[in-house]
Amino acid sequence: MKSIKSALILISIALAFSCQNTAQTNPKMEAVKKAEPVVVPLEDGLARAYFASGCFWCVEAIYESVNGVKAVFNGYSGGFTENPTYESSNTGRTGHAEAVEVIYNPDIVSFSTLVDVYFGSQNLTQVNGQGPDRGSQYRSIIFYQNEFQKKIIEAKKDDLAKNLGQTIAAEIYPFQKFWIAEDYHQDYEKLHPNNRYIQGVSIPRLKRFQSKFPHLLKEDH
């Protein structure tokens, strides 16, 4: 019995590892990473940027606190399947990560500053996750829509790596498409302030960011 149990445990561990690393090993991901970026045009003078950095509930709250950001939506991006859902993306087999769409006024806050917010609000060296959230669906990805944005991202990532003397985990992808998440994921921290995860993970992460970047915050934050 012990040998059978041991074998089952090893199989379970292997499956879990496989799920978490599907996005890195699936050849379809190479096509995603090499694709031409899709440019999202300005609408009413507002631009859009896309980031993945662990649980989207946390990232949504962080960007919503930044002056110049008009709205943030939770969703999925960076993968190779159509119409991903929360359930499917959590298997790690869609290639998608939990991501946010940040709608902002470029006259108030620049893309470069949004990248600073991104790098300044996460564990820079954690691979395939943030905090307690583990798996490729929680990996850090920063998306670019043109070469100018790509150069900004690469320069900041390189500087951080040199200053820390460590590898920065965030991947750099050409933006392709953002799939908006289910309604119940939107404004999650605002609507569920007493949720145990929000209390224990999301709010502390938001407060750490706010203490580091008080000059970037909206007046009501």
Task: List the topology elements.
Elements: H1 2-25, H2 27-34, E1 47-53, H3 56-64, E2 69-77, H4 86-89, E3 97-104, H5 111-119, E4 129-130, E5 133-134, E6 140-144, H6 147-164, E7 171-174, E8 179-180, H7 188-191, H8 196-212
Helix pairs in contact: 3-8, 5-6
CATH architecture call: 2-Layer Sandwich
Distance between the termini: 58 Å
* Sheet with most strands: strand arrangement: 7-6-1-3-2-8
Mean pLDDT: 90
Apparent shape: globular
Query: How many β-strand stretches?
Result: 8
What is the SS-derived class?
A: alpha+beta
Largest sheet features: 6 strands, mixed
Q: What's the number of structural domains?
A: 1
Name the poorly predicted regions.
1-23
Q: What do we call the CATH topology?
A: Peptide Methionine Sulfoxide Reductase, Chain A
Bin the helical content.
40-55%
Please name the fourth-level CATH homologous superfamily: Peptide methionine sulphoxide reductase MsrA
The fraction of residues in strands falls at 15-25%
- Rg value: 18 Å
Q: How many alpha or pi helices?
A: 8
Give the helices and strands as they follow along the chain.
Answer: HHEHEHEHEEEHEEHH
Summarize the structure.
The protein has 221 residues and is an alpha+beta fold.
